[in-house]
User: Which sequence fits this backbone?
């Protein structure tokens, strides 16, 4: 699996951890694959093998898409510049604090910036 696919899957874990944990409990009945992945991320180790195990566990529990079912869909018009449309100031976006996954969050009014569900750090601000 390429780095982009791994980052997309890790973002899915970070953004949907509670749902993934519930799906593991209701499917295979074992949250161990998720805990092993989290330990690998927190320890700075390679996540390929534990991510593959978690993906397979979700599939074995009846979800044919596994982790890919939690990942954000592709295809966004963000960043495109249309002829005749005035430029806007840079748009804020919040990203994975460690840069290991491709999770993102768009600000929504006074809503507080979320934290990484894996290591607890606040998502980092960037501008598009």
Assistant:
């Amino acid at each position: 699996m390429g780095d982009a696919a791994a980052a997309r899957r890790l973002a899915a874990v970070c953004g949907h951890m509670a749902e993934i944990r519930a799906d593991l409990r209701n499917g295979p009945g074992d949250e161990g694959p998720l805990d092993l992945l989290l330990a690998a991320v927190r320890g700075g180790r390679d996540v390929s093998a534990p991510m593959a195990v978690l993906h397979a566990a979700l599939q074995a529990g009846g979800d044919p898409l596994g982790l890919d079912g939690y990942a954000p869909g592709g295809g966004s018009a963000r960043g495109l510049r249309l002829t005749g449309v005035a430029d806007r100031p840079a748009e804020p976006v919040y990203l994975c604090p460690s840069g290991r996954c491709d999770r993102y969050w768009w600000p929504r009014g006074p809503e507080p910036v979320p934290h990484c569900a894996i290591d607890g750090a606040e998502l980092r601000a960037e501008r598009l």
Notes: Residues 74-82 have pLDDT under 50 and may be disordered. The beta strands are 92-95, 104-105, 124-127. DSSP finds four helices and three strands in the chain.
